[in-house]
Design goal:
- The chain has an eight-stranded parallel sheet with strand order 25-24-23-20-17-12-27-26. Strands 4, 5, 8, 9, 10 and 11 form a six-stranded antiparallel sheet that branches. Strands 1, 2, 3, 6 and 7 form a five-stranded antiparallel sheet that branches.
- β23, α6 and β24 (369-372) form a beta-alpha-beta unit.
- Helices cover 23% and strands 21% of the residues.
- With 533 residues, the chain is of the alpha/beta class.
- The chain has helices spanning 179-184, 186-192, 225-238, 306-314, 319-322, 350-364, 393-405, 418-429, 434-437, 452-456, 463-472, 508-519, 521-530; strands at 3-5, 13-16, 19-27, 34-41, 44-49, 51-52, 62-69, 76-84, 89-93, 96-98, 108-111, 125-128, 148-149, 154-155, 157-158, 173-174, 196-199, 203-204, 215-219, 242-247, 291-292, 295-299, 332-335, 369-372, 389-390, 441-442, 476-480.
- α4 crosses α6 (350-364), α7 packs antiparallel against α8 and α11 packs parallel to α12 (508-519).
- The chain has five domains: 3-111, Immunoglobulins (Immunoglobulin-like), CATH 2.60.40.10; 126-187 and 204-242, no CATH class; 251-300; 306-375, no CATH class; 392-533, Glycosidases (TIM Barrel), CATH 3.20.20.
- It is globular.
- The protein is built from 13 helices and 27 strands.
- Residues 127-518 form the Glycosyl hydrolase family 13 catalytic domain.
- This is Neopullulanase 1.
- Its EC number is 3.2.1.135.
- Keywords: Glycosidase, Hydrolase.
């Protein structure tokens, strides 16, 4: 039986004096007579010779070596192997042997040089929904100001921390969590082994989730305002923690001054064809604004407008750049529904604008981390200069759901075994460079899904296995707030419960499991960095 081994890590690849040496190990009863290396130079396919090494790396294993000239071509080096006999050929890729040449994204890939942020792969992230994590006392003036939430058609509801969350709790229900509350809990997070925070949106917006932005340049007073974010930034830096913000650049809220549906006097685009922001949105002939998925309170931004582009990312003091500069010095952006961003009310020229956002971030802070939200296949956005990484729903979360929770993203039944789960994960990551695999953002759940514990139902004993998988699989592990103490809940709003700070309400066994894996995190990260076969 023919076998082959290769991963884009040492000892199979070695960079030396402007050349990349690539080695394939082969064993079996009938070895190939020749092996060639399929590579690319500026998107043109090349067939490069490989020579057989005299020394066997292992008994019964033959090594073939070829090389790629790094002086030309693009940074992402794609390659595969063609094994030849007198009467046949086989191709070898990350997914094994094939009888025909692989597609471009099915080959091995390595980034030389790697332009992504080098710090990311060593992190343990923690996602925080600010209103539901921790509430600081005493309260500041304006934090608990009542107001009418137009999109919900009601006044906001302010609850005590220990009040239960009900099915009626939508975007108007607040528990008072804030940024100073997060600062106060940094010792807890540090003890948990967390080294980086990703915050759901913190900018001024009327809803509790803040995805309906009203002002991109001010932190919401409900969360403590600009001063509270600055305190959190200083505190995380003191603790050696990274801090990522959520960028909602596909749409605004309809109360933003650029749009001004509720006519607060800004001269917004909604009611004025002469508004300076009119071309920042797309309107039908009847005057209706295009919105995100039909939600009228979330009008889509139109990136045909040069002035909008300058405001969001291209200008020297654009929103993207502003929060990466001192005194804020944020470590990057998570980009909300970024695959839908574009021109003319749709996603036209999407990749161009995402690359522009990333370029602006890198020009401002070279080691900034830019990753996108993608429930579907994100690999299209991970091939050029668009994104450093993506929320790895398709390549991690959903395979694990199918294996351990027997459900899919639509919450339809899906029962797969461990072999199928790993094959699914391997198939997905095969289209990424090895360095990019190590930066993929792995989660068991998030603010947009049911809690993994609830998905497991009566099979909750499988949860520790999922924790092990989270920390051991290639990529960056991220804990959704409260998962570590057993917070449960189905879809929104139940997946956004207040954090139970009373130890009597916490799952001490699960927390112990997380802490146990924290203690060997460095070793497991090294395993993930080395590759998985």
């Amino acid at each position: 039986m023919l076998k082959a081994w290769h991963l884009p890590v040492a000892p199979f690849i070695k960079e030396q004096q402007g050349r990349l040496f690539i080695t394939l190990w082969v064993s079996g009863d009938e070895l190939p007579q020749r092996v060639t290396l399929r590579a690319e130079e500026d998107n043109e396919e090349l067939s490069l010779p490989m020579h057989r090494l005299r020394q066997e790396p292992r008994p019964g294993v033959v090594a073939w070596r070829g090389e790629i000239n790094l002086a030309s071509g693009q940074p992402r080096r794609r390659y595969s192997f063609k094994l030849l006999w007198a009467d046949r050929q086989r191709w070898f890729t990350p997914q094994g042997f094939h009888r025909f040449p692989p597609a471009r994204l099915e080959q091995f890939a390595v980034d030389l040089p790697d332009s992504g942020p080098q710090w990311v792969a060593d992190q343990v992230f923690y996602q925080i929904f600010p209103d539901r994590f921790a509430r600081s006392e005493p309260r500041q003036a304006g934090q608990d100001r009542p107001y009418h939430h137009h999109a919900a058609g009601q006044d906001i509801v302010q609850k005590q921390w220990d009040e239960p969350l009900t099915g009626e709790a939508g975007g108007s229900t607040f528990y008072g969590g804030d940024l100073d509350g997060i600062s106060e809990k940094l010792p807890y997070l540090k003890q948990l082994g967390v080294t980086a925070l990703y915050l759901n949106p913190v900018f001024v917006a009327p809803s509790v989730h803040k995805y309906d932005t009203e002002d991109y340049r001010r932190v919401d007073p409900q969360f403590g305002g600009d001063a509270a974010l600055l305190r959190l930034r200083h505190n995380t830096q003191r603790e050696g923690m990274r801090l990522i913000l959520d960028g909602v650049f596909n749409h605004t809220g309809d109360s933003h001054v650029w749009f001004d549906r509720h006519q607060r006097g800004s001269g917004g685009a909604c009611h004025s064809a002469d508004s300076p922001w009119r071309d920042w949105f797309t309107f039908s002939p009847e005057g209706e604004a295009h919105s995100w998925l039909g939600y009228a309170s979330l009008p889509k931004l139109d990136y045909r407008s040069t002035s909008l582009i300058n405001e969001i990312y291209a200008g020297e003091d654009s929103i993207v750049r502003h929060w990466l500069k001192a005194p804020w010095s944020m470590d990057g952006w998570r980009l909300d529904v970024v695959h839908m961003l574009g021109e003319g009310g749709g996603a036209r020229n999407n990749l161009r604008h995402i690359a522009g956002i990333t370029q602006a971030a890198k020009e401002t802070q070279p080691e900034s981390f830019v990753f996108g939200e993608h429930f579907g296949d994100a690999r299209q956005w991970l091939q050029a200069d668009a994104e450093d990484s993506a929320m790895n729903y398709r390549g991690f979360t959903f395979p694990l759901w199918g294996f351990l929770a027997n459900t899919d993203i639509s919450y339809d039944p899906q029962k797969i075994d461990a072999q199928t789960c790993v094959a699914w994960m391997d198939n997905y990551r095969a289209g990424l460079s090895h360095q990019q695999q190590l930066r993929m953002f792995n989660q068991l759940d998030s603010h947009d899904t049911a809690r993994f514990k609830s998905l497991l139902g009566k099979d909750v004993a499988r949860l520790p296995l999922a924790v092990v998988w989270l920390f051991c699989w290639p990529g960056v592990p991220c804990i959704y707030y409260g998962d570590e103490v057993g917070v449960d809940g189905n879809n929104d709003p139940f997946c956004r419960k207040p954090f139970p700070w009373d130890p009597a309400l916490q799952d001490a066994t699960l927390l112990g499991c997380i802490n146990a894996w924290r203690s060997c995190a460095r070793r497991t990260r090294r395993c993930a960095t080395a590759g998985v076969r």
